[in-house]
Fold each of these.
Amino acid sequence: MKAQSLTIGTLSRLTETKVETIRFYEKSGLLPEPGRTEGNYRAYEVEHLNRLSFIRRARALGFSLDQIRELLRLSDDRFRSCDSVDAITREHLIEVEQKLSDLKALQAELSRMLTQCSCGTVADCRIIDALSPVRNAGPN
């Protein structure tokens, strides 16, 4: 193995990515397949490390695999206008804002449910009633 080559285990440790996930990224085309050693082991290079780090960071920020695929494609053309990158990021920001709105509504509903709780028995629990629409429906 060349001095700058990395094993899949080393790449896994350096990026805190499971080996199975690395293989998945290879199969899905996000991460190029590495060369092989004479012993037929995968031989990852610094470029793989950088690309996998990019993928991990983008996933941590909630970008979808399709969005990451497009961002990677765009990043390969360093002299291209970043308008397309901005558009993908803007689209993702709208998705994040919608999720935040949904979470705020969820927070309000959970707070409302807790304020109705009298801390009695489960049989009289307003939270259980709110979560059980069948119990609220009553006989027809």
Amino acid sequence: MKAEPARTLMAFDYGTRNIGVAIGQSVTGTATALPGLKARDGIPDWQQVTRLIEEWQPDAFVVGMPLNMDGTESEMSQRARKFGNRLYGRFGKAWHAADERLSTYEAKEWAGRLGHTGSYGDNPVDSMAAQMILESWMNDPANACWLIRETPRP
């Protein structure tokens, strides 16, 4: 039996001031937080993004969608979707939307257990949230077809 190739994915926790970044791979379904990006009204330094992509060579992107608790899109999820479309337009790699409800809350809890002092402006947890978003997306059985064969999802 032929082994399927590992897929490398880069995730973004989109925000207007900070954008969290994580890198992961499909074999283990695990991700690692990378240094986050500063943004100005949601726009990152695209040269920084390019350097990250050149360094890590992801096969695709996962962008967290900040949905409302009832599952509807918010203004921020529309902006995150636009960010995902810009990633595709600039780098020509597929991007996948991931439900990120409560990921920042969970990242803050996790950071607190690790000794974070709670000054999130000075020490944001957005990349921890991106790590959680990516691991959740990779471990969702609905995404297995893409991770294994890069076939389109229904």
Amino acid sequence: MIKSQALVLSLIASTAVAQRVSDVMFEPGNFGTMVNGTITGNEFFDYKLGAQSGQELFAELQVSDTNGNGVIYFNILPPSSDGEAIYIGSINGNTARIDLPQDGDYTIRVYLMGNDRDTGKTVGYNLDLSIQ
């Protein structure tokens, strides 16, 4: 029993270490920005973005480089979400334009799927974000 608990704790710790978070800020006078990065295997990157109810969030994700198939997506999570998304890129595609339902900090989570995730491939990306 103790051995299995240690394994679960080890898996939770390794997942938490893989997550990265960045606050997105727009330059004065701008309503959008481009961010870029890389994701490897099971990693995911959360971009936090403050917005108000009724504003429109635009997000577009493009692969810039990969040593695999470039199977990368993003989800949009509302404020205080425990993982539930209001937009799922693997279903709806890598371009989103949605009206935001509430005030708060939204999370744009970039992640890999399929063989790229399972074999630890690295995918570089550009993520265009704006709020109007």
Amino acid sequence: MREYKMRRGEYLEDRIEDMEATVEEYFGPISGTEAYNDTELYVVEDPDNPVFSKVTVGTVEYGSKKDKLALDIEERPAEKVIAEGHVEAAEDAVAVKNDFLESATGRDAKSRRESMKRSVEDDEVPDDVA
């Protein structure tokens, strides 16, 4: 599960007013929920795009900190998708994921990658520190 933060000064609830409707618009009908960090995330068991086998997504609330978007997309093996003749669906899958994340976070793929790198670097402890 990856968590994505919003652009500085922006909040998830301002960018996506109705998470349930937005998830259904991008990924397909919601089949249930799943607990994650004291939050219920939406689960799409049969996503519209045949590349995705399961999508888990929602808002993770952190009390005094800004909420984050949690997203986990399980994908089917590429060979199987191609063998079924869904080559264009693979291209569309990348676009759907990036469009959803950009509309939710206000960040494009490059700035999301840079943000993830910074958060990993901030979490690392130097070898000589106990």
